[in-house]
Design goal:
The protein is an all-alpha fold and about 140 residues long. The chain has helices spanning about 5, 15-30, 60-65, 80-90, 100-105, 105-110, 120-140. The chain contains seven helices and no strands.
Length: about 140
């Protein structure tokens, strides 16, 4: 899904990508709308090719899916998951979480990401440790 400021052809920055991240996380955690075969967020109906104005309300529809999922053919999320997504899909870009806020959010806190300014070798070590944990967990459950 495209950030509202991009659809409206306004000036935008990296926070447009953070909006898209919020939509993607919602789809990953919920499987998308329950009445769709494919995992999709709520989307406006285009009347013709290039009718991007149809998507101006997508942000509002997703906010409604978060707040009242049962009324909008969506799955309910935990409070922490709702908060994470809500803070990424705010209509005004400067109201959205930034990278440091994302890394410190309760949803990701237990992941123990390497520091934002970490050297690539530290990031590589962290990635390898996550793979080992995943392999150990799958071996234990077998």
């Amino acid at each position: 899904s495209v950030a509202p400021e991009v659809l409206r052809q306004e000036v935008y920055n990296y926070r447009a990508d953070l909006y898209s991240l919020g939509v993607l996380v919602w789809v990953l955690l919920t499987g998308g709308l329950l009445n769709k075969v494919d995992p999709l967020p709520p989307l406006g109906q285009m009347r013709y090719q290039g009718d991007f104005a149809a998507h101006y309300k997508d942000c509002d529809m997703l906010v409604k899916c978060l707040a009242h999922p049962e009324s909008h053919v969506a799955r309910r999320l935990s409070g922490v998951e709702q908060d994470f997504i809500a803070k990424l899909i705010r209509r005004r870009p400067h109201d959205r979480m930034c990278h440091s806020d994302i890394r410190q959010h309760a949803l990701l806190r237990d992941v123990k990401l390497p520091p934002y300014n970490a050297h690539w070798s530290e990031v590589d070590r962290w990635v390898r440790s996550q793979r080992l944990e995943t392999q150990s967990a799958s071996s234990a459950s077998s």
